Each structure stands twice: as structure tokens, then as C-alpha cells.
Amino acid sequence: MCAHRPARPPFLTRIPRRLRVALTCVPGLAAVAGLVLCGVGIDRTAGGPGPSAAARATVGHTAPRPPVVPRERWLGDASVTQAPTRYADRVSAVFVHHTDSPNDYDCADAPRIIQSLYTGQAGVRHWDDIGYNFLVDRCGTVYEGRAGGPDRPVVGAHTQGFNVGTTGIAALGTFTAGMAVPRAMTDAIAAVAAWKLGLSGIDPRAPVRLVSTNSLSRYPAGTRGTFTAVSGHTDGYWTACPGAALMARLPGIRHQAARLQGRR
């Protein structure tokens, strides 16, 4: 079961228990006990190859691309056959997550931890890939997650109902109330958010309106929800992710990302 499960939304009482469990949390592999993977969901909206970063870069408030460790560095021989990558037109928002896993890891072990997450999601759970577009360790290293090109608007599987046109950034660890959130980690999240949103000319502090594609989110399919351009997983889905401690850091992350874009 998922740690820190929130109260069940009313509509879930009408869904069979087996399906509710599948939609919220599925245990990880025994070999990676403690890595609890909370429900993130996959939207099946298809799309062709998205435009390149150069084609989408807007004049003005862009931010530099932070160093990103390519997925080949953590994938190793764990790769499974996956469906073709899907793309949106652009990235309009960022959703921040935590992996609900231990915090006391050595940063040199981050690739192994990410590979374990991938194996649990793409292998055991038969997703089309790891759900997150990026992962950040406690030392501030940014890792490419989902395949398709880090500079492109890749559709992930991180926030049920709002995977299309967003980027999911997962912090490696558990950041519930009272947990310390490393400064290097929040700096890295801000850098990724500034870069990805800058490609669409979006202020990380600005409100954005997104259309839900799945009624299992907080919004019925086809309706619009208003978010801040950098939001937490819980803003779009019934979950405590990314934890109260990391949620409390989001205002600072937004302002830092805006400064990286050259905004006041």
C-alpha cells in the first residue's frame, strides 16, 4: 500500500477495489523494498514528433539547459520493448514529485535506484517506460527519465489526467512533513523547470489552464483546471506526493526558476 495515502475521493467508491489499488499504488520489486511507487497514471492521447528546442525557443525569457545525465547511464541492460514516444505541442507546466524512497542513499547509487524504478514501472507494471521525464538526486544531479529527448515535449506518465503538455520532475527520496529537502535538489528542480518552461515562454510563477484527459484526476475529463506553472503532483491527482516538505519549497522553486529566466 502507498504510504501516507490521502482520504479516498468519493468517485473511487464506485470503482472495484482491485482497480482502485492498481490506480493508486502498486508494490515495487522485492529487491528494492521501500521504493513505493505511487499512482501516476498514463494518458493515451497520441501525438507525432514534437518540434525541436531550437524551433520552439522564444525570444526573451529562456533559461540555459542544465546538465542532464542521459538515460543510457542508468538504463544499462534493463531496457524493455516500449511503444513509440508520444509528444505534445509544447510544455505548459511542470509537476513535481517525490519517489517515496529512502533519503540516505549515496548519490553514486542514484543510477541504480532509477533503474530499479524503471524496472518496477516498465517491467513489472508493464508501463511503456518510466513515468517521469526527469529525476533529481539529493546532490542536484539531473537525470533524463522517459525516452524521447529531454529537450522535446515528451508525454510522460506522472500526473493522471495532466500528462499531455507537462513535464514530470521526480525528487529521489521521501519529503513528507518534517523531512529536510536538500538545497542542491531544489536548485536543480528550479533549473529544469526554468529551462523547460522557457522553451514555451512561460513564467514559472504564472497560472496556467490545463485540460484533464482522465476523470480519475481531480478534474473530470474534458474540463479545465487552473494550476501554477510549477505545481505538485497532489494539485492534479489524489495523492500526498510530493510530500508536505517539498510542497512547501515550491514557491521558492518558482521564484528561483523565474530569476533563471531573467524575470523580476
Task: Chart the SSEs and their pairings.
Elements: H1 17-24, E1 25-26, E2 37-38, H2 53-56, H3 72-75, E3 93-98, H4 110-124, E4 134-136, E5 142-144, E6 166-171, H5 183-198, E7 207-211, E8 224-228, E9 230-232, H6 233-236, H7 244-260
Parallel strand pairs: 3-6, 3-9, 4-6
Antiparallel strand pairs: 1-2, 4-5, 7-8
Helix pairs in contact: 5-7
Structure summary:
With 264 residues, the chain is an alpha/beta fold. It has helices at 17-24, 53-56, 72-75, 110-124, 183-198, 233-236, 244-260, and strands at residues 25-26, 37-38, 93-98, 134-136, 142-144, 166-171, 207-211, 224-228, 230-232. It has a single domain, classed as 3-Layer(aba) Sandwich (Lysozyme-like).
Question: What can you see in these coordinates?
Answer:
- The structure is a single chain.
- The protein has one domain (63-80, 89-260): Peptidoglycan recognition protein-like (Lysozyme-like, 3-Layer(aba) Sandwich).
- 26% of the residues lie in helices and 13% in strands.
- It is built from 7 helices and 9 strands; from the N terminus they run H-E-E-H-H-E-H-E-E-E-H-E-E-E-H-H.
- It has helices spanning 17-24, 53-56, 72-75, 110-124, 183-198, 233-236, 244-260, and strands at residues 25-26, 37-38, 93-98, 134-136, 142-144, 166-171, 207-211, 224-228, 230-232.
- The strands form 3 sheets. The protein has a 5-stranded mixed sheet. It has a two-stranded antiparallel sheet with strand order 1-2.
- Helix 5 packs across helix 7.
- The relative contact order is 0.20.
